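Example record

The entry below shows one chain as it appears in the dataset: sequence first, then C-alpha cells.
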Amino acid sequence: MSRKSSSETVSRVSAQPRTHQRAQEMQEFGRVVPNLPLSLEEPVRMEMCEKLNQLLADTITIRDLYKKSHWQASGPTFYQLHLLYDKHYGEQAELVDTIAERIQILGGISLAMAPDIAETTQIERPPRGREEPPVQISRLLDAHEIIIRDCRELADRADKLGDQGTNDIAVSDVLRTNEMQVWFLSEHLVRTPLVDATSEAA
C-alpha cells in the first residue's frame, strides 16, 4: 500500500472555518436517551425530566426577575435592595445550572432559549416599566411560592419513584435556597417603626 504524498495531505488542511452548518437533531426535545446505566427506568427519567424542565423554566424566570429588580431598585432602601437582589440572582443562576445538568444526566434535554422559557413558565410576566419596591418584592414572593410548591411535589414524587438524586437537588438545593430567599424578602414588607417604638413596655 503506497503512502499518500505530502502534497495530498496538505491540500486537506485549511484554516477556513466551516460556517453555516446545519444537521438533523441528535435528540428530540421531550425524549430521553433509552439506555443509561443509572438504574432508573426510562418512564421514570421521562417524568422527572418533564417536571425538572418546569422547575427550570420557573427558576430561569425568577433569576431574571431578580436582575430586573436589581437594575430598577429605587427609594430609601435602594442600596440594600440593590445588593440583596443581585445576591439572590447569583444564587438562582447556580440553581439553573444544577437543574439543567440534572436533566442532562437523566438523558433528557433541558430548556434553554428565552422563547421556550416564556412559553413554559408559570410565573406572571412583569411590566417592562419600573415598579416600586413593595411591588417588586411581592412579585418575587409570588414567584417563590410557585417554585416552592412545585419543588415539594417534585421531591415527594422523586422519592416515590426511587430517584434520590433528583430528590436531593429538589430539597437540598432548590427548596432550601428559595425558602431562605423568601425569609430575606418577606421581612422587608413588615411595617415597623424606624426610631420610636409603637408602645411603651408594660
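Notes for this example: The longest helix spans residues 42-71. The domain at 39-189 is CATH 1.20.1260.10 (Ferritin).
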